[in-house]
TRAP transporter small permease protein
Amino acid sequence: MTFTDRTARLSETVAMVLLYGFCALMLAEIFSRGFLRTSLAFSWEYSAFAMCGVFLLGFGPALRHGTQVRVGFLLSRPLIGRYADIAATLVGLVFAALMFEAFFTIFRSSLTSGLRQSSYIATPLAIPQALAVIGAAEFILALLARLLRLLIGEPPELPRESDATDG
């Protein structure tokens, strides 16, 4: 679980860097269009890749911090909530494994055939697709760690900052 916590922090850091990079690219595009009267050829393409990376690399850390969308009604019931949480985590693992398999298949196909983005820059598609594969793998690790924590009775999420300061 320590390994998963470390990879989640790394994934979170990379997602934040990509988010800031995405914002910087969009600001550069606005500046370029507004003042230089030209568009940056790569800004939209790389911004889309970065946004994909932000979402996928953020799945695992969001799960650990308890910021994912869920229904709290069942979780408020002590016995039912625990079993519902375990069941939902198992279902999530199945879907995360399917997501990983799909992303890995596309990544492997792009890597072996040398596919490139059909644009001026012609970015090798394996590069942004690798972010999807890494994000899906991190999500599987986070779900496995969550399941293990639920099974041994540890809290599956980190305490929220507001919860720590309230009491």
Residues 2-157 form one domain.
